[in-house]
Amino acid sequence: MDNGKTTASARRPGGQRRADAQRSIDKILTAGLKLYSSRPGVSVAEVAEAAGVGRVTLYGHFPSRTELAKALMERTFEETEAAWQSVDTSGPADEALDRVLREQWHLMERNRNLRENVLGDVSPQWLRTRHDPILRRVEALISRGQDEGVFRNDLPLSWMVTTLYSLAHAAADEITAGRLTAEQAPEILSTSLRSLYRP
Amino acid sequence: MDNGKTTASARRPGGQRRADAQRSIDKILTAGLKLYSSRPGVSVAEVAEAAGVGRVTLYGHFPSRTELAKALMERTFEETEAAWQSVDTSGPADEALDRVLREQWHLMERNRNLRENVLGDVSPQWLRTRHDPILRRVEALISRGQDEGVFRNDLPLSWMVTTLYSLAHAAADEITAGRLTAEQAPEILSTSLRSLYRP
After folding, report:
1. Average of pLDDT values for B19-29?
2. For B129-161, how does the pLDDT look when each residue is reduced to its tens digit (9 = 90+)?
3. DSSP sequence for A31-99
4. B170 → closest Cβ in A166, A173, A184
5. Which residues of B touch A (CB under 8 A)?
6. Which residue ranges are recorded for the region named Disordered (chains A, B) (predicted)?
């Protein structure tokens, strides 16, 4: 089936071939996000099947699990950025941070299986680096809170950002492990960070 | 070289063969721990070379990177247990926990490259599960502190244990990332947990 498709598209003009390829990529990423988010332990073969493309086609676009994992994570980072834009960050920084946290939490909770599926394929360092744009916004908000006197200033700013990043992912993992419920997790996370950040 | 050795040991009595195998395993684990702890990105071939055994011998004992990673981690868990035993946990629970944390910190800091080397080979869940014996001791100490009134009791006990586990590993990773120094990290970790645990 794959070979047939390749031969057919090879006879088409370049623009058409590129459009076909983009459609395949979209189908793979859409099916991949859905599957990876549904449960841990998803195989690349399952993604190809759910996307309705052959394995050869999938490997043609994503030569390794790592390539696929990175492409799937890039899609979710776009959502993360959009979620931040939707939050009102005016007013006292501690209240604004709490609103941001709860808005971002929905994405983290929804994506916790996705994260588990990609952790063997991309390094924690890669994940952290790709979170940099959002973490720089968090940092600016914490810094504003220090100026306003609502956050402590006896800990390095970068460490305060890291505690938020670590504890938020830890809370999501605790749901997966069955030690927290999805209902109690955001409140517990918020309470913990308030204790950690208060002067 | 490997084939020669195998043939020679095949002619020996079973006890001698087992002793040879145990010596190979010891050499591999000793060299592996040293290499994995020295820097990230170590290959299995490098471990074999440092241990002075052939790759075939290494793969005979550890058929995959995962098997080797698990065996190396098991060795460090024995040290973790011994480090706990060496700490005086009498007296107020908050002071005892701080002593435990500083003692365990030395191991975590020393083993942070090891951890980074195995993270692609064993799951975070496996690592957490193998920490269970030590985390149950942490839990008992936090629980005692709640009874003594030195620790808060408005957060789930399991979550308090998780915050210690997550923030300790985060602090070690911050040293690797160059955002904390090895000197400041234990104090910052201790300060953070005191804020998080106080009633």
Report:
1. 92
2. 999 999 999 999 999 999 999 999 999 999 999
3. HHHHHHHH-S---HHHHHHHHT--HHHHHHH-SSHHHHHHHHHHHHHHHHHHHHHTS---S-HHHHHHH
4. A166
5. 119-120, 123-125, 128, 152, 154-156, 158-159, 162-163, 165-167, 169-171, 173-174, 177, 179-180, 184, 188, 191-192, 195-196, 198
6. 1-23
Residues A139, A76: Cα–Cα separation, whole Å: 21
ipTM over 0.90: no
Residue the block writes with tokens 């001791």? B137
The type of residue at B181 is T
| Cβ contact A139:A161 at 8 Å | yes
> Would the pLDDT of A88 be above 50?
yes
Q: How far is CA B130 from the centre of its chain?
A: 9
> Residue A154's CB: how many other CB atoms inside 10 A?
9
Report the run of H or E that residue B30 belongs to, with start and end. helix B14-38
- Is there a contact between B179 and A158 if contact means CB atoms under 8 Å apart? yes
**What's the rounded Cα separation, in Å, for the pair A86 and A106?**
13
